[in-house]
Queue: 2 jobs
Job 1
Amino acid sequence: MKAEDQLRGQMMAVLPRLRRFALALTGRSADADDLVQDTVERALRSLSQFVPDTRMDSWMFRIAQNLWIDKMRANKVRSGTVNDMEAAENVAVDGVRATEAHMLLKSTLCALAELPAEQREVVALVLIDGISYREAAAILDVPIGTVTSRLARAREALSTRVFGAGNPEDALS
Amino acid sequence: MTVTPETLMAFVDGELPADEARRVAAEVASDPKLTAYVEQQKQLSARLQSAFVPVIEQQIPERLERAVWDTPVPAEKNFATPWMARLSGIWREQTSRAGRTWIPAGAMATGIALGVVLAGTFGIGTLMRSDGGALIAQGELARTLTVALASEQSAPGAARIGVSFWSKDGSFCRSFTTQGGTGGSLAGIACRENGSWRIAALAATEAKAGGGFETAGADMPPVVRGALNDMIAGDPLDADQERAARNQGWRTQ
C-alpha cells in the first residue's frame, strides 16, 4: 500500500468528527459539508506539510477552522454572532429524520450560533469533540489560557440558555 | 472554599491530574452548591454531545469520500520526510517478508483501517482500542503499563514492560511486548497521555517457540527500536526513577 493511501485512509477515519466540527461551526449541514470538502482538498494539496507522527485529526481540524475563518471574513460576517433567527431558519440537517433528535440538534445549533465564533470553536472542540485544552490550544493556535477563558464564557452563556436564568457563577460566589 | 472557577471547570472537563481531581471531588461532594454546579456542567456537555450523535452516525456523503480518495496530491512534493521514507520502507519490508507485519508508528494515528488490520490479524481488541483516531491501551496491557516495574516482573502475563523513558515531547513512555494469540506477539511503545496509554509504535513479530518473553530490548523489532531511539530524551529511567514515576501515577510535571 502506498504511503499516500495510508494518509487518505487516516483522513477517512477523521471525516465523521470533522463533519460534526464543521456543523457546529457553520450551523448548516450544506455549509458544513462544503467546509469539509474544502478542508479535505486543501489537506491533500498540502500533504507535504503534514508533520510526521502528529495527529491527522488535529491537523485537519486546524485547516477547517482556518478555512472557516477565511470564509467568514469574505462574507463579512466577522467573528460576531450569527443572526439567531436566520440561523434557526437555515438549520437543515439532511438525513436526521427522527423528529426528537432533529429538534435537539436544531436547538443546539441555534444555541451555538448565538455564541461568538471564537467561543463556538472552543465548545466544538472541547465540549463536543472531547479534545483536551492543550490540543485545542494547538489547533486554534492560541495559549491554553485563552482556551479556558473562552470556554468559561461559553459555558456560562450556554448554561443560561439551556438551564434557564440561573447564573452558574452563583454557585461559586 | 478553595476551588477556583478555573479549577472547577478543568475538573468537569477531566483536565486535572488524578490526585488534584480527587481533592476537588472531595470538596465538591461536601458542598451542595458545587455539586449542583458540577452536575449542571456535566449535563451541558452531555446534551451537546448527544445532540450531535446523529451527525456522527450519518453515512459520509459520497462527494466527501470521493474528495478524500480522488483529490490529487502534488507530485513534486512527494513526501520527502524521513518518516515517509521509513513508512514506505516498512511496507516494503512487510510485503517482502511473509509471516511478519510491521505496523509503522505513523499509522497509529489512524483508526478504521488499522483497527481492521489489528483486529483481523491479531485479535488484540482486548488489549487496545481506537479512540478519537488514536490507539489506546486497555485491559491487561493498560494495567501492566500503569503498575508494572521493568525490574520486578515475575510470571509473564499478557504484557511485559521493556524500558521506561522520557520522550522528547515530555511524556513518560514505556516499551512493551504482549503475548499474542496464535498469530504472534506484539511489541510496541506506549506513552502516557491524558491518563491513558497511547500506542506510539507497534510491530508484530512471530511467536517465540515456547511462547516465552526474552529480556527487554533483546527481541525488540527494529522498527520499534528505531521509534524508541527517535523518541527518547536522554537515558532510560533506572529502577528508582521508574518506581518514582509509577508511584506518582506517571504524571509529568
Job 2
Amino acid sequence: MIDLLAIPRRSPNSAYRTYDGQATIVLPDRAEVNVLNPIGSIVWDRMDGTRTVAQLIEAVVEEYEISPEQARRDVLEFIETLRQHGMVS
Amino acid sequence: MANALQEMVVRNWSRAVPMSALFELTFVCNHACSFCYNCPTGQKEMSTQEVFEALEKLADFNILYLTLTGGEPLVRRDFFEIAKRARELGFALRIYTNAYLIDRPMAKKIRDIANPVEMEISIHGARPETHEKLTCVPGSLQRVIDAVKHLRAEGIKVNLKCPVTRDNQEEVLDIYRLAEELGVIVIFDPVITPRDDGDKDPIGQMATDDFLKRYWSDPAYAGARRELVPKMRQDAPGEAVCGTGRSSLAIDPYGNIYPCVQWRRKVANIKELKSMKEIWQTSPVLIEVRQTAVEMADKLRTMHEKGQSGGFCNFCLGVADLQTGDPLAYYPQAAKNAEFRRQAYTAWKEKTGESLEDDGGVLSKCSM
C-alpha cells in the first residue's frame, strides 16, 4: 500500500523529455523506452522528490476534469507500476 | 507502450521535431584510420564551459538522445565532467569510441557517471594485423576486445560497427563470429565516404564489386547484413529520404551546427545562439535540406517504379553533395550497393516465389 505522505522520486538513472504532453522515458539499465499517457506524464514530471503522493494527486485533479477518487486510484496504480518497473525510488 | 513510442517518433519526424543530436566533442584521436572523414581546421575546440552551455541549449530544445563522439571523445580530459553534466540535464547518452582507453576502471567510470544507453565501438578486422593496418596502432584490436568485455561486465549495451573496406572484406564473417562470441551485435557499413573536405581518397578503399555482390546475395552473410534478403524503401509521397535536419542534428568541436553528421552544410554556430529555437524552423539551410530529402525520396520511388535500383538504396544526401556537388545525384557507391541489393532481392523472389513488398520488410532510414 502506498502512503499518501510518501515522496516518490523518479529514478535518477532515467532520461526523459516530454513531447506533446507525453513523457518519453529512457531507462539505460533496462534498454527500455516508455511513453506515458498524459496523466502519467504529469505525475512523472512532478515526481522530483519534493512532492508527496497526495500532492501529485492534487496536481492531476488541477489539470483534468476528474474526481479526486478517480485521480487517487489512477495515481496510486501508476506509481505502483513504476515501482514494479524500477522507475521510482 | 511500443506503439505509443512509434506514434511519437512518427509524429515528431513529420513535424521536424528532433529527438537526437550528435556532438563531436573533439577531432583529436589516438588512432590514425586512413579512411577517417574528419577534417580538423585548426580552430580552437570548445572549452568545457562552452560545451556545458551548448548542452544546456540542446536540453532546452528538448533533445532526448545525445551521442558523444569525436575524433575520439574519451581523449578529452574533461570527458567525464561533460558526461556528468549531460546526465544531469536529462539526456540519454550514446558514446561512439574506438575503445582504446577503456580498461576495467574506465568501464566502471563510464557506467557510474555516463550510464549510456549504448556504446558503439569501431572494429576494422578480426585479426590484429588487419585491424591495426587501418588504425595504425599496435595492440588496438585486443583493446577493443578487452573493452567490450569490461563494458559488458558493467552491464552496458555495446554495438560494434565496421566500415567494410577492401582490406577487411574477407574477414566480415570472422568479425561477425567474434561479435557473437563477445555477445554483442556488429553493424557493417559497406559504404566508405569522402572526407568532410571533399577529398575522395578514402573511396579507393571501398570493398570490391565482387565482394559487395556476394555480401548482398549470399545467405552466409544474412547474419552480418541483418536481413535475410535486401529490404526495400517504402517512402510515402511527401516523406523524407532520411532524418537530416529533421529528426536530428550534429555539432562539431567548434560549435558549428549541421543538419546531420554527414551533410556539413553549416546552419549556425551554437555558441552564437541564445536558443536552438531561433533557427530550427526558419533556417534557409534547414528548410532546403528538408525539401531536398523529400525530393530524393520521390526520385528513388520513381526509379523503383521503373524497375531500377532506387527502392533498394540507402541514399545519403550528404555523401552525394560532398562527392558530386549535387545532393540529388545518384553517386557510385549508392548506385552500386543498391543495384546489387536489387539483383539479390529479384533472384530470391524468383527462386522462392515470395515477396517482401507487402509485409513490412522496410529498409530503415538513416536518422543520424
